[in-house]
Amino acid sequence: MLAVLFYLLAAADCLFISPRWEHLRWKSVAPAAVDVRASGEVVLTCAATGSPAPALAWYKDGLFVPHLDLVEELQQEGASLGESVARLRLSCATKETVGKYECRARAGEQELSAVTEVRLADWQEGDLCHESGQPEVGAFSPTIMVEEGQDALLRCRPMKGKVTTTWTNDKGHKLGEGERYSVTSEGDLLLKDVNFHDMGTYTCTLSNSAGEASVETFLYPLAPGL
Hints:
The protein is mainly beta. 4% of the residues lie in helices and 50% in strands.
């Protein structure tokens, strides 16, 4: 998985990055404007890399979209690098869906913003509205690198609705009930005092009566003082 580290270094357009240097940049953003058919749907996605590992959220018309929670006190602190993704599904589009949607990324004191205007296109050939009720992941971190001895926060936020969140490691063991592991009320996995043996893939699974959805996070411990 060293390729993951080399990828993040290349993504920052420099020869070397220290996890102690604050930086933030977009990996991808949603289009500047999107047309969605009446009663149809659109999914807005943004991703950013940075140090500390960034937190992302969607806002509408300057107002926070509550089902993608960005909680300042839960940002990854200390020496870390990471990539984060935020997704927002707008289903059964109506006139109320129209507006400007902002993806905001924050890493330490640095902040980026990208705005997408959602417009309603006329559609009179049938109702396109469909909601399965299955859970979806709204915000997560595909990759995170944390110095040994620091705490790691692996994000996994549902897009909406009540879900049951389960975390497992790459051996299939359920996490969140030990001294070093805990699951926050938002669904994130907090791993305390990271060491090299914690390296690996962690799976977050959201479930409800309609089904389940999963995402993976790769955790790479870094040598202290890198």
